[in-house]
Amino acid sequence: MKKWYFTFGCGIDEPYRNCYTVIEAENYEKAREEMVRLFGRSWAFQYSEEEWMINPQEDESYKIKCRLFGHDENRTEPISQAELYNLTQIYY
Known about the structure:
alpha+beta
């Protein structure tokens, strides 16, 4: 089983605005099916574990994002999207 991360984004109404959830599933499609079953289609994006982590060395806009969201732009280790964007996890 792999972990898949789903965001709701800033355009989603409460109670899920700026939240994310994690679904464990065999593959992309099964995770997506479970997400739709649980939350319908009112969510933003799906990420693999690899995509969920942002590497400062590889993301050209990393420093801008850090300034916008109040993080140390000189950080060198990877940061999760949840930490970078100040997202709250939803447990179901």
